[in-house]
Write a structure and sequence with these properties.
heterodimer, A: mainly alpha, 75% helix, B: eight-stranded mixed sheet, 33% helix
Chain lengths: 332, 399
């Protein structure tokens, strides 16, 4: 089994290398880089000359956009990354690792809470819908799940903001803290409450968006299991429908469910770019979107590598979990 | 195909006609099905039903089960499938009753009706009764029994062995867990220890070596024959009065088949129960059964003792089955096969279902459905050849 993991990890490193090269190339080939973005206004009103811009570009290592130039700068980036240094973010003026470490936690909080809600709402709904296939409950739940999944996140966010914040004023519109309130330094609990109050809408949006998928996934797998021979055997033993559904069937449905849900776990650190931006929450997704707009190459690279590692890790975790929940699976 | 046929969507093949369903007709069927199904499900799901409603009297107290005019239909979106259409036969105490017929003739559905395990909600027992005499001498009508009451009979008094040992055990629970479950459920005052002891005893009974190891194995670690033995052990755990074996050897290879059949025969004698043996293998029937029921397209066409059926088959279908059985002592170059196929059970005709495949078909055969003719108190067949107009017609033909 350890051999299997070593092989998987080696393979992952290879994948990460490929991903990093590809992203680096693409970001370098973006038509307007960081310096262009920052200096375009100054160049237009004449306070900076094109020579100044060129000098700045050389300073930032963005001057040479030829293929060899890109390869050279990629090699430099790779070397420093290997030693654990992701470089300085142009936009935030701090080491990329520091920015990541600062902002992932709020993103993780939002994503994790909505993940929990998604599980505790989606799975029971899916089981019940499958156990009562084609019933009124099944149709109702399916329609709502589909509607939730089909809604674009910005639309749902805008809808909730309009109704709940602007019209009714129950929840704050944006941000993470109330700017007009001043809390005493030791009022930790009140600050926490204030944050929670701000996070309710974004968490709701993420939950509504994802719960449909979990529900459908549970339902599909549950239906497949409920039609299998061993469920008929369980019924023939005289077990009640409750035991058949929640013990015999659900234990089997858990196999794909646990595998896919645990694979999502690392991804929770990745941030929800659109939702965070709409609600102006300073999470990692929001920061990444800003950096991408500005062409902040070190941050884009750092963030994307972070995402790739999370994805690779997610796949590894789901493999392990597959082995844990399914006695038939032996990794080798 | 005419122009308007393009708008007809669903093709349904009947016995010797093909019809097309329009969208409107399909919707009509679905609507009616929903109504019918809802009514049946409501009946079955009732709680606290008075016992008098489903208590009856056996015709003959030496029987364990009496099927009486059983009708089990499937309400599908292309029409009602009459999977079991008026089946009556008895299972006497301590006997093996073989049910034969080709695929799709309703033999499995008959047995599932007895367990109330017909694929709901589409499949429903619509008419007739299944009388069951339990160990305390009470006689229940299983067709009318509410679901919750049925749980006490399933697995305890009537247990079932399925066709596919490879998929009939839950892959994520250990053999022991799955076996203990039955005992813990049905035996009063059973503890985990007593359940384990019972499971191990049963595993020993079905001839499994190294019982302790098997007890802690997962199903995927066993071979097909072993799994079928486990299934049999599980079925025996509560000393059932009736074991339904639904093609227990079909999925196994020939050497294991004989072992499993012998095992079934042995355990039947040990627990003094009855067996309802469903198969399409006449060899198995000849070896095992005391009584034989031959089914065709949801109806019984012939029944009798094994001796009567094999020595003196009456119905042309049974005769055909006998001829199509490979045998060592004849030197025929090819196996006989009955021409044609079992009719699609939607839109069954109201005359003999076998007439378009039958070598002896007469005019009367495509006019009305034959009644059962009695040849001896136990031997009966439903064929026009042996009574009324058919007999006359046949004689005329000879003259």
């Amino acid at each position: 089994m350890w051999k299997y993991f070593l092989r998987r990890i080696a393979l992952s490193l290879l994948i990460l290398l490929g991903v990093s090269a590809l992203i680096y190339l693409l970001t370098m080939l973006m038509p307007a880089d960081y310096i262009d973005n920052q200096t375009s206004a100054a160049v237009q009103n004449g306070s900076m000359t094109l020579e100044d811009v060129q000098r700045l570009k050389e300073l930032y290592g963005l001057a040479d956009k030829s293929f060899t130039g890109i390869v050279k700068s990629y090699a430099a980036w790779l070397r420093s990354t290997m030693s654990g240094d992701l470089g300085f973010s142009f936009l935030y003026g701090r080491p990329v690792t520091d920015v990541l470490a600062d902002y992932i936690w709020i993103s993780f909080m939002i994503a994790f809470l909505s993940y929990i809600f998604q599980i505790i709402i989606g799975i029971p709904m899916g089981i019940k819908a499958a156990a009562n296939q084609y019933s009124g409950y099944d149709y109702t739940v399916s329609v709502f799940a589909m509607a939730g999944t089909a809604l674009p996140s910005f639309f749902l966010s805008a809808l909730l903001m309009n109704v709940l914040s602007i019209k009714w004023g129950i929840f704050p519109l944006q941000g993470l803290v109330t700017a007009t309130k001043i809390f005493p330094a030791d009022a930790h609990f009140q600050i926490l409450l204030d944050k929670v109050w701000h996070l309710i809408l974004p968490i709701t949006v993420l939950t509504v968006l994802n719960v449909g998928g979990t529900m459908r996934f549970t339902r599909t797998n549950m239906l497949e299991v409920l039609n299998s021979d061993y469920i008929r055997t369980a019924r023939a033993k005289g077990l009640s429908e409750q035991v058949v559904t929640y013990k015999h069937a659900f234990r089997n449905t858990m196999i794909p469910l646990v595998t896919s849900l645990s694979g999502m776990l690392p991804g929770l650190f990745g941030g929800a770019m659109i939702t965070e931006t709409v609600f102006a929450i300073p999470g990692i997704g929001y920061m990444a979107l800003r950096a991408t707009r500005q062409g902040d190459i070190p941050f884009i690279m750092g963030y994307n590598m972070f995402l790739s590692i999370l994805t690779v890790l997610g796949m590894l975790i789901s493999d392990v979990m597959y082995m844990v929940v399914d006695p038939r699976v032996k990794l080798s | 195909m005419g122009f308007f046929d393009r708008f007809k969507v669903k093709k349904v093949e009947g016995v010797d006609d093909t019809m097309y369903l329009t969208l409107r007709e399909e919707r009509q069927i679905t609507k009616e099905n929903t109504k019918i199904i809802r009514e049946f499900e409501r009946q079955k799901n009732r709680k606290n039903v008075k016992e008098e409603e489903y208590l009856t009297q056996m015709k003959d107290p030496s029987n364990v089960v009496e099927f009486d005019n059983l009708h089990t239909y499937f309400f599908t979106e292309i029409g009602t499938v009459k999977a079991v259409n008026g089946v009556s036969f008895d299972i006497p105490q301590g006997k093996i009753v073989g049910v034969v017929g080709e695929s799709g003739c309703g033999k499995s559905v008959t047995s599932l009706s007895l367990m109330q395990l017909v694929q709901a909600p589409q499949g429903q027992i619509v008419d007739g009764s299944i009388r069951y005499l339990d160990s305390s001498g009470k006689c229940y009508d299983i067709a009318k029994m509410p679901k919750d009451k049925m749980l006490e009979i399933r697995g305890k008094e009537i247990s079932m062995i399925f066709q596919e040992p490879m998929t009939s055990l839950n892959p994520v629970f250990k053999i022991g867990e799955q076996m203990d479950e039955v005992v813990l459920l049905h035996v009063d005052g059973a503890t985990p220890e007593s359940a384990k002891a019972r499971s191990i005893e049963m595993l020993n009974l079905v001839g499994i070596a190294d019982v302790e190891k098997i007890y802690n194995n997962y199903p995927h670690e066993l071979s097909g024959g072993m799994r079928q033995r486990v299934m049999i052990a599980m079925a025996l755990a509560c000393d059932p009065r009736l074991i339904i074996a639904d093609e227990p050897t079909t999925a196994l290879d020939v050497t294991i088949q004989a072992q499993i059949l012998e095992l079934l025969q042995n355990v039947k004698d040990k627990i003094n129960g009855s067996i309802m043996l469903i198969t399409h293998d006449l060899g198995v029937i000849a070896e095992m059964a005391d009584l034989v029921v031959v089914m065709y397209a949801g109806r019984i066409i012939e029944k009798g003792t094994v001796h009567e059926i094999f020595k003196n088959p009456k119905h042309p279908y049974t005769i055909g089955l006998m001829k199509s059985k490979p045998s060592g002592d004849t030197q025929d170059d090819r196996l006989y096969s009955i021409k044609g196929q079992v009719p699609n059970p939607i839109n069954m005709p109201d005359y003999c279902y076998f007439c378009n495949r039958c070598d002896h078909a007469m005019k009367i055969c495509s006019e009305e459905y034959p009644e059962l003719v009695e040849f001896s108190p136990t031997h009966m067949a439903a064929c026009h050849l042996y009574y009324g107009k058919g007999l006359l017609e046949q004689k005329k033909g000879k003259e």
